[in-house]
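Lecture 7 notes: from sequence to structure.

We start with a single chain of 300 residues. Read the sequence below before looking at the structure.
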Amino acid sequence: MTTMSPRIRIGSAPDSWGVWFPDDPRQVPWRRFLDEVAEAGYEWIELGPYGYLPTDPAVLAEETGRRGLKVSAGTVFTGLHRGPGVWDATWEHVSAIADLTRAAGAGHLVVIPAFWRDDKTGEVIEDSSLTAAQWRDLTTQTERLAHEVRERYGLRTVVHPHADTHIDSEENVARFLDSTDQDLVSLCLDTGHYAYCGGDSVKLIETYGERIGYLHLKQVDPAVLAEVRAGGIPFGPAVARGVMCEPPAGEPALEPVIAAAQRLDVDLFAIVEQDMYPCEPDRPLPIARRTRGYLRSCGV
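Now the structure, written as tokens:
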């Protein structure tokens, strides 16, 4: 009997088509996204914001299936550092998305921590640093969430370090990983967000390889990032300025990241996510085609 060697499966996401919200007149319609992501050469997609793609599992299966697409993950936003009082509302939100994710045949749930700045206005709504008590709430409730998601839906929880959240820098990512159970909680390493927050993706993969459960491939434009840092610009306006750019123009170089991930010798999804909200509707497809070609040149 032959066994297949572990591989990296490449996909893309609504994010790469400028989709951040379930419904927004500035976003491409969902049918166009599905048509174009398949046309660009991708086989795997994420669900994106809950409600953007059809939430009826039968409709979703029909629409993805006839385009040759499969779903790798769903995505949820959580504010678990705010304590046990947010659990019930969080679980109500998560369970609906986890149910659709499982029904779509996916195996992962990407969990993004709450922003400490409003994602639309940029207004500071919380302290950018957590207290020791808040860290305990964040880690223990994330473990609880991962346990429930695994037991009830059979999904693997992958937590996504993200700009303008409390899991962002090398220091905070390491603290989060060191404080959570590796059997429950894995990481969705987003190479762009990690670079945005000053981290080295190759070093993270080499140091915490057993915790890497999923990848988002993305690059930052160093010149725009320098302006963002100097001006204290929030993430949303930074994206509108083009802080996330088309590979291979930015940082980090993706070939070494992919090589480091391949050395882990495990199956991994690597989903392209070029934040482009808002963007002109004709812009994403050519970029997606070129990016897919570039990743093939990197061996995936």
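The chain is about 40% helix and 15% strand. Keep this in mind for problem set 3.
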